[in-house]
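User: I've been going back and forth on whether these two constructs are worth ordering. Before I decide, could you fold them both?

Assistant: Sure. I'll take them in the order you sent them. The first construct and its structure tokens:
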Amino acid sequence: MHLVAPSDFRAALGAFATGVCVVSSRGQDGRPAAVTVNSFASVSLDPPLVLFCLDRRGSALAHFGEAGAWAIHVLADSQQDLARRFARRRHEAVAADPWAGLEWAEDDDALPAFEGCLARLRCRVERVADGGDHAILIGRVIGLDWQPAGRPLLYFRGRFEAVAADEAA
């Protein structure tokens, strides 16, 4: 059996451009929480299900795995700062409050909501599944908002990228 080195696997997957999302929720103490993810995908149209993945070794899993609901924000290319606020590797400490100075609102489900996103999906937790060193969090979409225009924020080879403007337009 041929084993794949984790560093080679990560590098190969980095060649696949993904969208960037911020998932928000509230803790049992009522405080807002958010995490940046690029492991977001649709699962089913009927019922409407989506997923995102979190590292089992990270602190975010304890919160989002126990939350009853979350909102997934599909970020626009102008939202790199928002993505950076809630992105950290499991070994990095939070130096400052990522919510400080950030404008956000509360939606009808009391979830933190950010303006300017290409789409926002409000989800109830359907289940949490095993995914090796990650957990797969599956949510049932109970409401959504989306913008008909805009360009997505992408993650490619370890960096944020944007879709090039159409030169023919």
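The second construct, handled the same way:
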Amino acid sequence: MNNLRKRLEENQLAIGTHISFDDPAISEMMGYAGYDFLWIDEEHTPLGKQSIQNHIIAAKAAGTASIVRIPWNDQILAKSVLEMGPDGIIFPMVNTAEEAKEAIASCCYPPEGIRGFGPRRAVKYGFDDSIDYVKKNGDFLKILQIETAKAVANLNDIIKVKGIDAFIIGPCDLSLSLSLNVFGDNVDGSFLKTIATAIQKAKDAHIPIGVSMGSYSSEDMKFWIEQGVDFLSVGGDVSYLKQGAVDAIQNFKELS
């Protein structure tokens, strides 16, 4: 059992971070830093398939869970990633129960789904029992991203779809879907009401719900923890490198 699933099942808050750069040493380092999971992002980065698999392997070596967000809710995009054996997969922009069904079906073999057989690393290159893997439909988290007001409005139907392991809120796109003037504003009334509704509905259905955010400040993390999320994906290699560089220059300027 991967450590993210374990923490969610034990109702323990979990923390992860986002991976955008190519070098798998980054994932290995972040794992050693103590993150419960790494969000390997294929949607908004130039990462290719081989790079994604290298990150998954590096995360495993460092003892942390690997979660891959694919670019779109598409069975073809999901298939090759699942064969790499990640600990979870994230489907972006899931807005309806039908789209949720399509995402889960992409992860499951018939008769439950439509996934074609051909695991590679997912069954340790044949050292694991492939039949057992098929029967269990893998042992990875199926996570749907809630990023629009439409998704929140349809959540009562979405949560009825069998096989969903978790939801994760995308606050930037969610705020944009409410109003162009609300982007990333945690104090806007309509935004607060929308996320409260989403979190409560997930809680009522006993489905863990998390948030993905670029910030890693204690203030922002505290805000989301107080809203009731079960896991947070914060910051990322881009922001950590940028801030470290900015801090070094500022320190130099203060001394020179």
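Notes on the second construct follow. The beta strands are 14-19, 37-41, 65-69, 88-91, 141-146, 166-169, 209-213, 231-236. Residues 53 and 84 are 6 Å apart (CA to CA).
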